[in-house]
Amino acid sequence: MVTAQPDNGEAQYYLGDVVRQKGDLEGAVRAFETALKLRPNLQEAYYSLALTLKADGGRSTAFAILFVTSYRIQAEEFYKQGLAALGGGRRIRREGETRGGGAV
Fold it and tell me: Residue 51 sits in a domain of what CATH number?
């Protein structure tokens, strides 16, 4: 699948997972990084990259990746909750703004 679809982020992620399980940590890191270039929101790839870097001795880099990933997940969840609270995405008017978007 990876050979047939080199621009498929999910395929690169799965390749990284298989390669990591076989002990090729450098190959896994390359595959996860490629997956993230192709699909920047693939949260599983961030997590797997962090675990692989930690196993390879890159503890501070792994921590940074996990922090960014958790922040993205929380931010996305907060955004969804905000949209739900607003009734499906209605925009909040700023102070002094009229319904049409102009200033009062």
Answer: 1.25.40.10
Enclosing domain of residue 13: 9-85
* 104 belongs to a structural domain: no
Domain count, the chain: 1
In a domain, 100, yes or no: no
| pLDDT for the residue 44 | 87
| Alpha-helical regions (H) of the chain | 9-21, 25-38, 43-55, 59-85
Residue 80 is encoded by which pair of tokens?
A: 């969804």
Give the predicted TM-score (pTM) of the model: 0.59
Angle between helices 9-21 and 25-38 (to 10 degrees): 170
User: Which residues are CB-neighbours of 96 under 8 A, at least 6 positions away?
Assistant: 103, 104
Q: What would the pLDDT profile of 27-70 be if each residue is shown by its tens digit?
A: 999 999 999 899 988 888 888 888 888 787 777 677 777 766 66
